[in-house]
Amino acid sequence: MIKQTVAFRFKDEVDETTRAAILAELAEFPGRYPDMKNFSLGRNISSREKNMTHTFMFEFADEAALRAYLESESHERFVRERWRPVIETQSIVALEVEGEPSRTETAVSTAPSRPRGPYGFAFARLGVPDLAKSIEFYTYHVGLQLEGHDDTYAQLRSNVAHHDIELVADPSLTEFDSQTLAFTVESDEVLDDLARRLKDDGRELGELHPRTKAACRNGFSVKDPNGQTLELITDFHVYAEPPLLEWRPVDLVHPFLSTPHYEESQRFYMEVLGFLPSDYIVSDRRGASSFIRCEDRYHHSLALRRDDSYYVAHLCFRMKSLDHVLRGRTKAIYKDVPIPSDIVNHSASTSIAFYMYDPTHGPRIELCDGHRVFTPEEHETHKPRYMSADPRNIDVWRAAADDWERF
Ligand SMILES: [Fe+2]
Fold first, then answer.
1. Which of 53, 88, 113 is where one domain is finished?
2. Which residue has better confidence, 404 or 198?
């Protein structure tokens, strides 16, 4: 039998829609050419050979069958009209081996054929008016451990990641200022692809903050449609051990952004950056929200809500258990930290949480007991739900459709 491999690179200027259309057409080849066996297609993931973006491979019983495919009118037309205009370079190799094609399944790698999004939410950099007081808030009320700091900044962490919150002293402020939201990216290939997609969208890429640069291997900054600075980074530094604290979060899960540029933000985060939609709360007089996810498969690593102005509405930390959430709640009550939204049961992400808020330290802080994580298969196939703007879709413990008051 003949085994053949085609490795290829799309021209840089070919947009994602066209790439997806070509890949979808290739995936139909085994149906179009029934003698083609054991077809596989996907993005090139080799760490050694990075010139080729994709590859597909297949088998034919003999050379005559291969030639019949290559010389068919439909294949020649595909190559002439669809393939050559978008392919920068290709490399085709074939070999003859003993035996017959053993299987007839086809394997199309769906995950790599879509543009990859960032991996997950890394940290928030917040300007605060009183650094010492904010350090006290994040250590006592959120359970973070203070790491690198001086009179001008402080980095605090919940787990092994380098930090979750970076506070920057700015005595001119009366309330917090959200300076940067950082997301991790799983590889340099994905980082390069994100940079290309952002440039294609007309975005200007900038340098990382020096302290971010010191805590990762690679990355860049970019502004979202709200003017919010984002940093996208690879290999965010980690500690060998989590903090030796019994009461602490285990992860920083998501920021929630309120925005007057809702549709543009949806387009930017989903179509350009590759976040995937998990659920939508559809628009009515109460507004609209989108819960969107990164490659870490949390139900949402970012949420967007339509509003009159832009602000980071909350940051969500996942605690070890409901017990730890309630310990945080009693600490907040004990020290008179306002709780604008008390214990809620989020149906969308199956988590029980409460929110505390002191704007001199940062956005609302959500402490939750867990957060739904999609399986790899759900991550590729999930169809977002469209939910009405009903309080019971935000908190399943609400009594009725008009029970808005506690949120
Ligand atoms: Fe949240």
1. 113
2. 198
